[in-house]
Amino acid sequence: MTDDEREQKFKRKLNRERAARKEAERLLEQKSLELFHSLEKLEETNRSLDATVKAKTREAIEAKEAAEQASQAKSEFLATMSHEIRTPLNAVIGFTQLLLQSSTLSDRDRGFLGHMDVASSGLLALINDLLDLSRIEAGKLELETIDFELSCPIKNAIDLYTVKADEHGIQLEFINSLGSDIYVTGDPHRISQVVKNLVSNAIKFNSDGFVRVSLSGEATESTVKVKIECEDDGIGIPADRIDSLFDKFAQMDSSHTRKYGGSGLGLAICSELIELMEGNITVESTIQVGTKFTVGLELPLGRSPAQVTTDHIETSLRDLRVLLVEDNPVNQILASEILSDHHADVHIADNGLEAITAIEDNEYDVILMDLQMPKMGGLEATARIRAMGISTPIIALTANATNEDRESCKVAGMNRFLSKPFNLNELIGNIAELTKRSVTSHSQ
Ligand code: ADP
Could you tell me the distance, in angstroms and rounded to a whole number, from the CA of residue 164 to the centre of ligand 1? Predict the structure, then answer.
């Protein structure tokens, strides 16, 4: 090959390479442009996605707030209604209990009153269940943490059902393998509520058989692992119903409700309460053989507190000067009848302002204070009485039954809190205790 030919070949190669480079550049430019457009689109999509997410988040927050407001409104409504229902119910239950104590009743009238007592107590239990459920749903149910003797709330709950068990021809037993000197910390009223519900069902769904409640457990260094069993040989529960047994309003069917009554709330509340106590509840049942509920709890060991016995208290409040601050005329009569029966000397003030005037002029041993009253409510009156340097014991007597109410009473300077309808013995027991009168218990 001549020099010329070699040069020509080289030039052709250069031209080919130049053309290839140009093509590559053109492709690169085209791809860069495509990439640029894709990025633009991606950014655009991103922006609109961001806006959608923000809008959806705002909607979700608004929906959550609306739901919370609705739930709050429902809780408030239930609390108000429960207050409104408890107030007249207090009169019904209180007067029935008072009348039942009369020695001049005919057997027929005593029977009628007995029915009234059962019906009104049932109504109260239902209202309490509804209120509990709404508190649980609103996350507002708080447990007490007090020291108590472990078997006490269980025995008290069972004792309430001895008459009913007799009526059903049922042998009601309590087997306590832990004895009566184990003190734990927790909420005795809620434990009692669970046992009451289990025992009440075990009796209701049984006849001429047995209901056996057993308490057992073992102590660790700082806690007691408690097992409470409630066993019956009643109608049993079908296997396909067991799973939904702890759901709200779970009853077998409407004919069942008509035959046995009940709201279907009891076991749902029991399981929620036990969950709050970080325990567990299980059930084993065989149709026509019987049912056994088992509750497991682990409670911290507690100290033996100074005990107040509220059952069957017989006490004399003779000449005790009691100031009753209450605006409702029926409740005025009820409370003063109860106290006069125990020979106390009762003065009535219609509201907080009248109470303060009465206290300026007289000396009292104890003050019973309603919360909601015209002119001046119980909380303000108590705060003023305490600001006057008067330390007379004050017991709140109120149909407001929330934990916040209890707390407000404590903060205002009240010594005790009894929610209406109050147990008659509980009222007398608390007065006697606060005024250091002797209290004789005939329980057990
Ligand atoms: P209620 O008793 O008010 O209907 P509960 O939640 O306490 O509501 O009980 C739900 C249902 O579980 C009862 O209606 C009944 O069908 C069934 N049940 C509960 N305890 C027993 C029992 N010991 N024996 C048979 N059935 C029971």
Answer: 17
